[in-house]
Amino acid sequence: MNVHWIDLLVIAAYFAVTLVVGLRFSRKNRSTERYYLGDRSFPGWAVGLSFIGGTISSVTFTAYPADSFKTSWVRLLPNLAFPMVALLAAWLFVPFFRGGRASSAYHYLHLRFGAPVSVYAALVYLAAQVVRMATITYLLAVLLANLLGLDLVLCAALVAGFTGLYATKGGFEAVVWTEVLQTIVLIAGALGCVLVVLNAVPGGFAEVWAQAVGAEKISFRDLNAATGALEPLCGGFSFSEKTAAMLMLVGAAQYIAGQLDQDTVQRWCAAKSAKEARKSMWVLGLGALPIWTTFMFLGTCLWVYYQQHPDDLSREVLAGTRKAEDILPHFIITALPHGVAGLVISAALAAGMSSLGTCVSAAGMVWVNDLYRKHLVRDRDDAHYLTTGKLTSVMLSLLMMGGAVLFHLADGKTLMDTSITVTAMFGGGIAGAFLFGILTRLGDHRAVLAGMAATLAFTAYAALMQFKVLPRTFDPYYTAILANVVMFAVCFFASKCLPAPPRDLSRLTLWDREESPNHDTP
Questions:
Q1: Are 203 and 299 in contact (CB under 8 A)?
Q2: Cβ(325)–Cβ(142) under 8 Å?
Q3: For 412, which DSSP code?
Q4: Which residues are 232's β-sheet partners?
Q5: What is the pLDDT of residues 453-512, one digit of tens each?
């Protein structure tokens, strides 16, 4: 075991507090409304911190420092679009969903386009959530395996089991309030690492900055795998290689898609009012980018630290013979003071578990309310669906544990590359269907089913291209953008060929958002 007993006490205290906070809500969960929406009583600041905790996962904590340690800040580029997306969501999407007829993201698709569309979108969402949960669980398992000297599968079971316990027992209230706690611990852990490095490097911040700028580590340059050198990104727009503009478009596309899936809509619906839901987006939009930047800067600090204190592992990471995600766990166990190391390990666990708790709750709500209750087992009492929801949470915990080990076979410079690519492929262009429904009055289920068929064909091609079965014609990073363009374009043209009959679109499009007696005003 590599962790000192003082650090183990800190970690145990963190687990205990998280569990107490999570389980204290279990007795209140006597209905699916309470279990999945927390009685719609959350203030905006808490929802905003919950958003940050759910958005900034263990991918951020482990993979961002790993990426900037080995390369530069190039993969911060997609995140630069995030504040604008958050403001767009506050202006457009929050009032739309809070004042509309839909009670969930996929209920909206059901009202707008019918059951086949909503079922397909819900299934794609569930598949994407399982991939995301497996990615996060794997990163946490790697961290624990390195720190505790345990088998990776056992560590994956510990992560999934603990998160599943409080998410299953405590419901959405447990998820939100533990995310608030975990976000605070996450920020404290990152700042703790940075301060330790700055204290260990003679000259502190000024020296770290000077060395990093001189080596072009604080830049938007990408690593040339053949030469090992950082090279400027190409300019303009291209689907065959990474450019700064295209990476920002990738970020915009992925984050817009994120505003239209269930874990986001669930939080908006759980806020006290539309005003509080909008406030949560201000907290998220202003808070997320500085935290992402801090984690990038942490990786840069580690690069400077290991330039002055090189060892075998840091050399192997820079040489490409060892995964970059190993650098932060190595720093934690070899360089941090006892107690601080325990705080940082707790922060890493907080980063992952906050996202996992969100995924479990949102995916469970989609399965129970949008699939099971509507299409599989109807007209049962609410207690039956509450029990089903808890069993679903258990099953999702098992799936995220079982899928974690598959990322050992990932083909990418870092796990961030793999995560972005796989998530894009499982996105299925669903955001394009949402935007088609919200921004136009055109089409019915026939147009969207045509769009889904075209998008399925496109994503199948992208997957075969990624696994080198077919020749590569575009960078897999752009799968999300292209899939949504395919979806929207095919839906649009199909709707012209197959005109929809007149139907009630009140509060279902941007152009039909008239006020009603039940409109949720700020």
A1: no
A2: yes
A3: S
A4: 221
A5: 998 888 888 878 877 788 888 877 777 788 889 999 999 999 999 999 988 888 889 888
Which of 416, 402, 336 is closest to 152 using CA atoms? 402
**Domain count across the chain:** 1
CA 83, 349, 128 angle in degrees (round to 5)? 60
Nearest one of 428, 432, 422 to 476, comparing CA atoms: 422
Beta strand spans in 323-465 (E): none
> Could you identify the residue written with the tokens 């295209």?
246
Amino acid at 304: V
Read off the pTM. Answer: 0.81
* Cα 231 to chain centroid, rounded: 28
User: What does the alpha-carbon distance between residue 83 and residue 17 come to, in Å, rounded to a whole number?
Assistant: 32
Cα distances from 49 to residues 45, 180, 288, 467, in angstroms, run 6, 5, 9, 38
Is 129 among the domain residues?
A: no
The reply to whether 215 falls in a domain is yes
Residue 301: give its domain's CATH number: 1.20.1730.10
| Least confident interval from 37-51, 359-373, 404-418, 500-514 | 404-418
DSSP assignment string, 221-259 = EEE-TTT--EEEPBPS--SSS-BHHHHHHHHHHHHHHHT
State the Cα–Cα distance between residues 46 and 93, nearest whole angstrom: 19
List, for residues 394-444, the tens digit of each pLDDT value.
999 888 888 887 765 554 444 545 555 555 555 567 889 999 999 999 999
Compute how many other C-beta atoms are within 10 angstroms of the C-beta atom of residue 213: 12
| Residue numbers of the domain that contains 325 | 5-26+41-74+135-242+263-406
